[in-house]
From TrEMBL:
<feature type="region of interest" description="Disordered">
    <location>
        <begin position="1"/>
        <end position="22"/>
    </location>
</feature>
<feature type="transmembrane region" description="Helical">
    <location>
        <begin position="77"/>
        <end position="99"/>
    </location>
</feature>
<dbReference type="InterPro" id="IPR044839">
    <property type="entry name" value="NDR1-like"/>
</dbReference>
<protein>
    <recommendedName>
        <fullName>Late embryogenesis abundant protein LEA-2 subgroup domain-containing protein</fullName>
    </recommendedName>
</protein>
<keyword id="KW-1133">Transmembrane helix</keyword>
<dbReference type="GO" id="GO:0098542">
    <property type="term" value="P:defense response to other organism"/>
</dbReference>
<dbReference type="GO" id="GO:0005886">
    <property type="term" value="C:plasma membrane"/>
</dbReference>
<keyword id="KW-0812">Transmembrane</keyword>
<keyword id="KW-0472">Membrane</keyword>
Length: 246
C-alpha cells in the first residue's frame, strides 16, 4: 500500500467461490438428534451386576453337583424296589384269587357223657379253593364246664383237601372231680359246655406241603341233657389258623 492512501479507498476483497464454501461445510462434523419413545429406552446394567449373576450361577451349579449323588441313589433305589415289589404283589394277588384260602369250619353233631369219658362226634369242612390242611396229630382237645376242665383228648390225624368235609370222633377221657361228671351225666336241663381243639396243621397248595401252622377251634355248645337222649340245642364255633414262629 502506497503512503498517504486511506484504507477505505481500497477495493473490497473478492468473495470465495461457492465450491470452496461447500467443501468447508462437508468436512465439518455432523450432529443428529434421534427421538425414541420412553417405553423403548434400553439401559446397559453396571458391570457389578454381571459379577453377581456369574457368582449365583456358580453357586447353583455347585449345589446341584452336591445333591446329584443322593438323587441318583434314591431314584435307582425306588426303581429297583418297584421292579421287585410290583411283580411280587401281582403274583400274590393272582395266587390269592386262585387259592382263596379260608379257615376250616367245625360243627359238633353229638356229645354224650359216660362214666369215665365223653364221646364227641363232629365234622370239619374246608371252604378253600385250592388249599388243603394236614392235621399232623398231637395237640389237645379240652371239654370244659363252668370254666373247669372235665375231659381231655387228642385230635385226629388226617388230610383235609380243598372243598372237602370230614366227620371224626373224639374220645375224651374224664379229668377233675368225678362228682362233676356224674352231675353232668345225670342232668336233664340245658347245659353249656365249651370245646376247644388246638392242633398243628401243615398247609398244602397243589400238592406242595408248606410251613406248619397252628389251628385253634373254639365251640360254645348248649346241650339238652348229656345222657342217652343228649341233643345239641345250639352251638357257636370259631376257627383260627395262626403262624407259629418256632
Amino acid at each position: 500500500m502506497e503512503e498517504g492512501e486511506h484504507p477505505s479507498s481500497r477495493p473490497p476483497l473478492p468473495r470465495p467461490p461457492a465450491s470452496a464454501s461447500s467443501a468447508i461445510v462437508s468436512t465439518s462434523p455432523l450432529t443428529y438428534v434421534v427421538q425414541i419413545p420412553k417405553n423403548q429406552i434400553y439401559r446397559i446394567p453396571p458391570p457389578e451386576n454381571a459379577h453377581l449373576a456369574e457368582h449365583y450361577r456358580t453357586h447353583v451349579a455347585s449345589l446341584r453337583h452336591q445333591r446329584a449323588p443322593c438323587l441318583k441313589f434314591l431314584s435307582r433305589f425306588f426303581l429297583i424296589f418297584a421292579a421287585v415289589a410290583v411283580p411280587l404283589l401281582i403274583a400274590a394277588l393272582v395266587l390269592y384269587l386262585l387259592v382263596r384260602p379260608a379257615s376250616p369250619t367245625l360243627r359238633v353233631h353229638h356229645l354224650a357223657a359216660k362214666k369215665t369219658q365223653f364221646d364227641v362226634s363232629a365234622s370239619i369242612a374246608n371252604p378253600s379253593n385250592a388249599m388243603g390242611y394236614l392235621l399232623d396229630g398231637g395237640g389237645a382237645a379240652v371239654l370244659a364246664y363252668q370254666g373247669k376242665s372235665v375231659a381231655k383228648g387228642e385230635p385226629p390225624h388226617f388230610y383235609l383237601k380243598a372243598k372237602e368235609s370230614k366227620t371224626f370222633r373224639l374220645e375224651m377221657h374224664g379229668v377233675g372231680k368225678a362228682a362233676d361228671r356224674e352231675r353232668l351225666r345225670g342232668s336233664k336241663e340245658t347245659v353249656e359246655l365249651r370245646l376247644t381243639v388246638d392242633v398243628p396243621v401243615r398247609l398244602g397248595v397243589w400238592g406242595l406241603r408248606l410251613w406248619e401252622m397252628k389251628m385253634n377251634m373254639d365251640c360254645e355248645i348248649m346241650m339238652k341233657s348229656l345222657g342217652k337222649k343228649a341233643r345239641v340245642a345250639s352251638q357257636d364255633c370259631k376257627t383260627k389258623v395262626m403262624i407259629t414262629l418256632c
